[in-house]
Amino acid sequence: MQIATTIQEVRTQIKEWKKEGASVGFVPTMGYLHEGHGSLISRARAENDKVVVSIFVNPMQFGPGEDLESYPRDLEKDSAYCESLGADLIFHPEPSEMYTEGFCSYVDMSVLTEELCGLSRPVHFRGVCTVVNKLFNIVQPNRAYFGQKDAQQLAVIKRMVEDLNMDLEIIGCPIVREEDGLAKSSRNTYLSAQERQAALVLSQAVALGEKLAADGETDAKKIVGEMIALIEKEPMARIDYVKAVDGLTMQQIDTVKRPMLIALAVYVGKTRLIDNFMLS
Ligand code: PAF
After folding, report:
1. Mean pLDDT of the 96-120 span
2. Pocket of ligand 1, beta carbon within 6 A
3. Which residue spans of the chain are classified as CATH 3.30.1300.10?
4. What is the mean pLDDT of residues 252-263?
5. Contact between 192 and 236 (Cβ < 8 Å)
6. What Rg value do the Cα atoms of the chain yield, rounded?
7. Closest-lying ligand 1 atom to the alpha carbon of residue 147
8. Taking residues 120-145, what's their average pLDDT?
9. Is 181 exposed, middle or buried, given 0-12, 13-18 or 19+ CB atoms closer than 10 A?
10. Pairing of β 260-268 and β 271-279
């Protein structure tokens, strides 16, 4: 497995592979990989001739006061993990390689970014869309893999690919959870033992919402209300949002429809965690 730090190295390798007629699967990440990322890499491995994983903590998608500096990093462990899953190439650029002096071109999106994380983190999706666009231009993948845990991100990227006529397939993969239900996340490492226990309230709220919907509840506000009531019983949890939105447009809805996404972001201590379920 090769580790490339420059765009030129990646381009040269991709060109060679494309000349041989190889298909390329791509998994963009910010590193500190866990089994959630592992499931994306394994799926890419199964469906493509070559697999590229990018590891880049993208400064552009962090707002002021967010965890850019403290975001966990461990390239050695990540490389061993990628290699064990059969990745062919890791792209691990420095910020200066991705954003050269004078950088001033961005990819922005309206509508889909107005609610949920887009509302709480105003610069986030502009940073995500811009970097993912750049990464797609560099790696030129046939398929790219994203987790359903970041459901709004997945919807935004699918929309961007459609709107901008990008020639690749976006594949969404299911949320991977710990045995007790907590959705896997690189940010789970921030949690103390007590917070880790309290964080279970997110997946419990998801399970409650799913059950209410499965039992035929058609009032999305009622489902959300019951989820909020459950989370509020946990003293260490502070809700950022719990919302029901249209599964494609990410606009808020009051009545259950399909596809519908119910997504939540909750602070446990200082750590902001997200979870969701989709009715499709
Ligand atoms: O989901 C992530 O880890 C990031 O948002 C992504 C897609 C790698 C872009 O920086």
Report:
1. 98
2. 28-30, 58, 61, 128, 131-132, 150, 153
3. 186-275
4. 97
5. no
6. 19
7. 1
8. 98
9. middle
10. antiparallel
d(CA 177, CA 114): 27
Other beta carbons within 10 angstroms of residue 9's beta carbon come to: 15
**Cα–Cα distance list, 71 to 54, 190, 238 (Å):** 16, 9, 21
Dig out the tokens for 67 from the structure. Answer: 């965890």
Q: How confident is residue 73, by pLDDT bands cut at 50, 70 and 90?
A: very high
Cβ 240 vs Cβ 272: under 8 Å: yes
Structure confidence at residue 78 (pLDDT): 98
Report helix angle 200-214 to 220-232, nearest 10. Answer: 150
Kindly state the tokens that stand for 211.
């059950």
Give percent of the chain above pLDDT 90: 100
> How much distance in Å is there from the Cα of 213 to the middle of ligand 1?
30
Nearest to 206 by CA among 188, 186, 228: 228
Instruction: Bin 102: left if φ > 0, else alpha if -120 < ψ < 50, else beta.
Output: left
Superfamily of domain 186-275: Pantoate-beta-alanine ligase, C-terminal domain (3.30.1300.10)
Q: From ligand 1's centre to the CA of 147, what distance in Å?
A: 10
Architecture label for domain 2-173: 3-Layer(aba) Sandwich (3.40)
* pLDDT for the residue 138: 98
34 an active-site residue? no
